[in-house]
Amino acid sequence: MTIGILGVGHLAVSMVNGLMKAGNSESILLSPRGKAKELAAMHGLDVCRDNRELVERSDIVILAVRPADAVSALEGLPWRTGQLIISVCAGVALSQFPPIPARIVRAMPLTATQINASPTVFHPDIAEARALIARLGPAIALASEDEFEVATVNAAIYGWAQDLVRQSILWGQSQGVDGLTMRQLVARTFVAAGRMIAETDEPVEAILKDLVTPGGITELGLTVLEQQQQPAAWQAACEAVLERLRSTGGR
After folding, report:
1. Rounded Cα–Cα distance for residues 222 and 232 (Å)
2. Which of 197, 158, 164 is nearest to 182 (CA)?
3. Containing domain of residue 196, as a range?
């Protein structure tokens, strides 16, 4: 099987690095722009002359161009029955793509694909897509495109979580704690919080309730955050991202 990467930007680089880390046994072809040359040199991959050659030689094509270019990127190329396109272009609905014989799956991986740790939502659930995505982290199939669009907001939340980690590290440093120590502590605390929710069946509310001792430090911090309108601001940010996805294709 041959995997073609159409659009070699930062997300595509993360995905290719993850596939190689997972022990990739397929051929990987790159389109001839973006970070193709450096990625090819790093892993010994072929760079195609143009997108036509990429499509002709590939069984699966990962479409990773800018959302604004996603539709036009598929036009005029020799797609064939049996091919699979995995579009990672945020906000571009299946109905927007031109009618072609290849099957199209939407997916929203995170840059954590490079360490095989990205929880990646995708739709529709096609076996070949699931198998490839699962090599980059947990593969989460969604029942509808509406669900997929809402879940795509998680790609923004991923960045917000990293910024919360950054802010916490900087605060610890300002109080005199070693920066590397704070980086490891805070990052692993976020991982631990996520695992407690992901790996147990207990309701999230119950998990949090066990932490919020009356008069304790967790309750104090949550009270301050609520007073500062953090819950409302977080919800507003999610709504804003979803509106952008629905109205402008993620641009």
Report:
1. 13
2. 164
3. 147-245
